[in-house]
Amino acid sequence: MKIASMLNDVFVSLFKRPFTELYPYAAKPAPERLRGKLLWDEQKCDGCKLCVRDCPARAIELEVADRAAKIFVYHYHMDRCIYCAQCVASCKEGALSMSSTLYHLASADKAAFTEVYRAKGTGVCKEEETPD
Amino acid sequence: MNVVLALIALVLFPGGLFVILGSLAFEYADRKLIARFQNRVGPRWFQPLADLVKLLVKEEIVPTGVNRGLFNGLPVAALAASLTAALYVPMAGLAPAWGFRGDLVVTVYLLMMMTLCIGLAGANTLDRFSLIGSTRALTQLFSYEAPFLLALLGPSIAAGTWRISEVNGYARENVWMIVTQPLGFVVALIGLMGKLELPPFDAPEAETEIVSGALTEYSGRGLAFFRLGRDVELLVGLTLISAFYLGGLANPLHFILKTLALLFVTAGLQSLFARLRIDQTVGLWWRAGAVLALVQLLLLIVLKLLGVRL
Amino acid sequence: MMQSTLRKVLDKAALWSRINSPWLVHFNSGSCNGCDIEILATLAPRYDLERFGVKLQGSPRHADVLICTGPVTRLARERLLRTYEQMPVPKFVIAVGSCSITGGAFHGCYNIVGDIGDVIPVDVYVPGCPPRPEAIIDGVVQLLTKLKGAVPARARTAETPFGGAE
Amino acid sequence: MSGESAFSGIQDGVGPWISSSRAPADNRLDMDTSAEHLVGAVTAFNALKWGYLSAITGFDSGTAAPSDGHIEVLYHFCRGPSVATFRVKLPREDPSVPSIGPLVPSAVMYERELSETMGVNVAGLPGRKRQFLSDDWPEKVYPLRKDFTMESAAATHAEAPTVGGEDEPGTFIIPIGPQHPALKEPGHFELAVDGEIVTHANIRLGYVHRGIEKGAEDRSWVHNIYLMERICGICSHIHATAYVLGVESLAGVAVPPRAQAVRTIFCELERIHSHLLWLGVAAHQAGFDTLFMYSWRDRETVMDLLEELSGNRVNYSVNLLGGVKYDIVGKAADSIRRGLDFLERRLKRYLKIVTTDESFLRRTRGVGTITFDEANRLGTIGPTARASGVSRDLRVEAPYMAYRDFPVVPVLDSRCDLEARFVVRINELFESCRLTREILNRMPAGELSVPAPRKVPEGEVISRVEAPRGELFYYIRSTGGAKPDRVKVRTPSLCNWAAVLSVAVGHKLADIPMIMVGIDPCFSCNDRSITLRRRGAPGGVPGALEQWSWEDLRQYGIKYYAGGGR
Fold it and tell me: Which residue of A80, D84, D187, D561 has the fewest C-beta atoms within 10 A of its own C-beta?
């Protein structure tokens, strides 16, 4: 029976550098496989909607105006998304990927969680649209 | 003229403001040490001050079915008791602001007022957790109070006086009493930890069992006064023990070194042990604490009768 | 004139103290406890939120910020409301996890009565399933910065617990 | 031991009570019986001492044309890999079945769930009115019935019963939870203090009941992987693995060996993360915050590994139907090995602390002893059973996935008390580290996943895996559609709750809080609740329902100890 079995552990840790990472000031880089916010590549997407069907949380909506000319409207709900990357696995064209840097998604108003991207065959322009 | 001096002593220097700031500094040192023992960074230096001010500006909820006067009065009484106790103790190494023959007993009594107020506060509210918390606080009070008093009597018997400043003076001239009365020192230090309900003895406010014990219903000012009262009591207790056992406090440097050394020991003890159940604490005090204190006293009296110069 | 400057100084001090010592109380209203262990991980040595003054308190009476997780199940709804009402003003709410914002993976289950925003007013939402401890710390920092910019404490007083006309 | 011989003794043992029997799979035996013969069949079965009751499933075959509109109740008894099931067909109007609680104590909670969600009237079921559905749930509305609609479940605003507070003379009731610092999850304990020994314990969970089994019925097979994974945050991967194994065996998909190895590595890493978390929470519950801080600091190592491999610290979402998403390549394998070496050094340190620290041993040695036959009879599983010498570990008895080529050395302890459960869990972690290293060294090559059909052919499957807290039981039934017809989940903590509480009856009160922590309860795993009949206690009215609070449990034991009772 030892009375203070943690004694040397406690004493040693007094002189060791604390284990704490000073997060907001010194952020360690996140692993590159981190599943952060979903990124949609308008060029590769061919509007097959496999991702919309396989998403367990109804977080993606895709309106297809013209598949050939690649004119789509793509709604992404960050607050519904459960970051499981099933859509990335289901997408045959590799148009979807999860960013490993954008994971601080906290925000004060709910509207900011819904993002709408309009693809006009030429370039992608993201619009801040209030959720319909 | 001495009215002005007395007022300054009461409000500014050895009295109110200095003790409050000193106790906040000591709470910071305590939390920082525990955090460093647990290998983490711990709070910033102004954290206790921020906590205190935030609690003061928070809304105070008085639960229903509670004696309003008692609910608001108890925290003030607890803080007042510990602040007055600070006047009799050689704060900052200088002579105590007040002193008369027998002020040791008054100081110990004032220090005990805090636990009494917490016990009453817990019993006053109808919340079940605080009822359990107050019964535990009072049972623990009766377990450590006697050995703690005996442990403080040792040095005063050796010095032959009941006046703290004289015991302080006696301790300065002679061998440190931690050497001549080691048992008394141990009981006094552990007794102080029991009085302040520091971790091994924090059954009365065991967070995982009874939320926060007697203080569950308090918020805002009441909570701020209770927490501040406990910090002041920590400072006063440490000064008292270092004045008696660590060769008296001659000057502010002595005061700072010795009290911080004692704080280091208590912070270490806090992070070493799991929380004792209330019956284990009571058993520990009556079996170990009281016996040690009595043996120490017996030894002392016998030596004094034989005229040995301690 | 003297009165208003004193009032301004007091308000600044109150705001400073509120920003530097946000005490948390945690309530799990039906979460799978993935977010709860991440909240506890922020208090463990690696992230140690005590350096911001954050302390996990047991009783809602002692807390300023209610950090709640999980889609509100039918049984937990009344308790969530009662915990929120027990907290003294000024009080704030952080909803952690996608299911606390929109029901996340549990959308459509019969025992879910909606998300936390339907039961109590939420200040900061932290999506993620579960969000990383860094994201939760980011949520707390966002709340504190929101406090800085907010109108002095009078906005949420005892008469307008759900926040008066900002 | 091949399937047939495992069931040999059963047929003639329960012959008179069963009408017909068949073997749908090599390790399964189904026996049809009726409500009247059920008790006789189970009594005879008990006499054979063949296995333990693992779960009771109820499903509604629906009112659509093909099915003849009945409700079927399945009693699953398991021993090693084989599962013997009693099937009872009941009419849809007012189905009723006798309770087998007196024969098998752990059946009480499964029957409680059956009666509330499926509407099967279980005669003789003790306990309070509403166990895990909310108090304002309307009468006669059963969520797992096929004809259930969301509107029919509108709240009737029945006044929730006042919880605690009513003081009969001599009892002192404190409601603990659902908001309580000791409970990381909302559970509600109602216990009244009376008499010398623990006479009755009643727990009201239900706060985490989200209706996942019904939710699974209107989600596709792919969606359900992620729904099952979020039943419990700490053992997420094992839930998804059990579900995916079941669906793959139903759909006849052969998973490549490399995918099985990756899944097994994630199972073992999750066990390390879950046990370290538990070590911290148990220490925090006993007030030993330094050990909590240290164990959670070291746990960050395995969390970093999991995040590096899969991209998320808690819900790794590795599984696909037919394989895995992420591979474990050279660099990741090296960081795993480094992480495991560090963890093993720290675990040796914790093993020493847990077995020598004086203040800790006073709370664990000789506390909560579940004897070997008690553990056997009450159907305890997982580390709690292994600490009592009952060797129930599905990785050993019924190896699945990569456990077949990398056998697991069972970790057993015979001291049966709380300290043994600490020691068993820490030794299990040494075993997990060894196993992970071995798999990493001899990682089979091959692709990561094979395509799986979107519609699963008709049939039933029982999938059983070893979760960190014990055996996890999945029953999946498909009618050939794109969505499952019934998914039944029986989580490990359910069995341990019953065992620990029935051991608590007659036990000293002061030790019960630590006993509860000893089984590592996971509320979100079991959003059902347990009511136990009381053994006779002096002064109490036998059979009356008493209610105590968690805190009273502690308080009472303290008075008991203070009185010198050892």
Answer: D561
